[in-house]
């Protein structure tokens, strides 16, 4: 630790590669896929953008701290890896089950009321929540994982990196639901 | 919104008693709720915290690390066991440490150290996709590295636009190395498998040649015998026994009959002789007495 960083030598070593990449048409900086720091989440909390849909474009990773359990030897990657507490019972839900549920006319695609988020945040009602908790923040995931590790070093802990774009349409920030409030309640 | 509307809203909204506690938690954790499930295809990787901690940038770690602490947790600059050690305080502490360090160390932390941590998070996924979708794999790791880089001091990273170029270049170089290493590994594997197949082919040929030679020797021996005209006949032999073996039981039975006749004749002769002798027994007895 503390070894001086030879910035100039690094620059000279990488000049060739950088110039090659600048000429490439696939440069994501130029393609607009990833802009330099704009629309990025701040270190702590949220900026003016609160909704998942507006944040996901420039924050494409979600992190989840969890205790891993051995997967079935027949596990297929198209099956659910994480499921909401509500669906953790003797029946093993498949992706088709969830798709059928969301397509059902008597249920909205995503529960998105204040009551739904309150139900999820309330520890006493956690088991009835249909949500899986994740975070946009890698730092929060590291902080939370180290905190849990210190309290119980024997418990294995992993951080899952999730493709946020793959769950778009079924994801919301907890804050956008909490800010809703509900006049009916 | 005028005052009456505001008052109406505050009256009608009845929030849970823990509302603000949840609000603070959801804010600091940048919490995202996914409804139902997360499919395995959306989970890029899952990495143990024990593997992540040694790869953290320097502002997360003590400048004088404890060499005896093998799992690196003793080298972290924050103590989560403290009662008042919240996440907000952690963020402030990390930012202060980052901004206190020299420009060279900041540049290192926002480039190579960020790439290192991003690569630690995504290594299994990156290695899987380096050959399949090279540009996509490089872009994703670079994006995560840049998110990590700007975390401790966004304004500083925004002022140093070269950081994005450096991160991209570094990930590009790593990607090339991984891709080339995988190609070399794949070529070596193909060469090895070709060797195995050639060896099997050689063994098969050898076996076939030995088998066919021993088969031809047997045929030659059989050809010398006058009665064994062809192999199929000998093969059918057990199913259709030769004529000799059918005749043999008849021979045996005729011998028995002959023996039986001889024995019967002998016994009949002996019986007749005894009868004759018996009829003359008195004369003989008188003769000897």
How would you characterize the overall build of this protein?
The complex is a heterodimer of chains A (185) and B (289). Chain A has helices spanning 7-22, 28-31, 52-55, 95-103, 114-121, 138-151, 174-178; strands at 61-66, 80-83, 131-135, 158-163, 171-173. Chain A has 185 residues and is of the alpha+beta class. Chain A has a domain at 39-68 and 80-178. Chain A is globular, with a radius of gyration of 21 Å. With 289 residues, chain B is mostly helical. Chain B has a domain at 48-194. Helices cover 71% and strands 5% of the residues of chain B. Chain B has helices at 3-12, 19-28, 49-52, 87-100, 103-110, 112-132, 134-150, 154-159, 162-224, 231-236, 243-279, 281-288; strands spanning 31-35, 37-39, 43-48. The longest helix of chain B is centred in the C-terminal third of the chain and has 63 residues, at 162-224. Chain B is elongated, with a radius of gyration of 51 Å. The N and C termini of chain B lie far apart (171 Å). In chain B, 27% of the residues are buried. Mean pLDDT of chain B is 79; it is low at 225-247 and 284-289. β5 of chain A pairs antiparallel with β1 of chain B, so a sheet runs across the interface.
């Amino acid at each position: 630790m503390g070894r001086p960083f030879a910035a100039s030598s690094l620059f000279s070593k990488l000049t060739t590669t950088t110039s090659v990449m600048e000429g490439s048409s696939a440069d994501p900086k130029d393609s607009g896929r990833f802009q330099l720091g704009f629309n990025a989440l701040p270190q702590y909390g949220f900026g003016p953008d609160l909704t998942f849909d507006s944040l996901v474009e420039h924050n494409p990773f979600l992190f989840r701290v969890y205790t891993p359990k051995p997967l079935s030897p027949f596990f297929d990657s198209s099956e659910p890896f994480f499921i909401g507490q509500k669906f953790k019972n003797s029946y093993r839900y498949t992706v088709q089950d969830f798709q059928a549920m969301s397509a059902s006319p008597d249920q909205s695609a995503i529960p998105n009321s204040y009551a739904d988020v309150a139900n999820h945040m309330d520890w006493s009602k956690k088991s009835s929540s249909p949500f899986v908790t994740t975070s946009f923040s890698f730092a929060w995931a590291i902080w939370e994982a180290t905190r849990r590790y210190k309290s119980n070093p024997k418990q294995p802990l992993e951080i899952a990196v999730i493709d946020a774009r793959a769950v778009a349409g079924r994801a919301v920030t907890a804050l956008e639901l909490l800010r809703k409030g509900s006049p009916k309640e | 919104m005028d005052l009456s509307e505001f008052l109406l809203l505050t009256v009608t909204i009845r929030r849970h008693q823990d509302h603000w506690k949840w609000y603070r938690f959801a804010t600091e954790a940048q919490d995202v709720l996914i409804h139902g499930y997360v499919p395995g295809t959306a989970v890029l990787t899952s990495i143990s915290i024990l593997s992540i901690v040694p790869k953290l940038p320097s502002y997360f770690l003590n400048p004088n690390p404890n060499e005896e602490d093998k799992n690196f947790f003793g080298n972290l600059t924050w103590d989560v066991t403290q009662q008042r050690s919240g996440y907000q305080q952690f963020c402030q502490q990390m930012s202060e440490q980052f901004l206190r360090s020299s420009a060279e160390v900041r540049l290192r932390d926002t480039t190579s150290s960020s790439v290192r941590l991003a690569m630690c998070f995504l290594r299994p996924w990156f290695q899987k996709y380096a050959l399949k979708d090279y540009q996509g794999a490089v872009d994703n790791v670079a994006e995560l590295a840049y998110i990590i880089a700007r975390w401790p001091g966004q304004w500083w990273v925004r002022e140093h636009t070269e950081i994005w170029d450096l991160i991209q270049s570094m990930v590009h170089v790593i990607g090339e190395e991984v891709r080339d290493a995988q190609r070399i590994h794949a070529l070596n594997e193909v060469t090895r498998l070709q060797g195995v197949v050639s060896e099997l082919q050689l063994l098969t040929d050898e076996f076939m040649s030995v088998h066919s030679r021993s088969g031809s020797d047997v045929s030659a021996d059989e050809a010398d015998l006058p009665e064994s005209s062809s192999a199929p006949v000998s093969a059918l032999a057990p199913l259709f026994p030769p004529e000799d073996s059918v005749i043999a039981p008849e021979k045996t039975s005729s011998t028995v009959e002959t023996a039986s006749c001889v024995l019967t004749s002998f016994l009949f002769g002996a019986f007749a002789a005894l009868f004759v002798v018996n009829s003359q027994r008195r004369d003989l007895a008188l003769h000897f007495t």
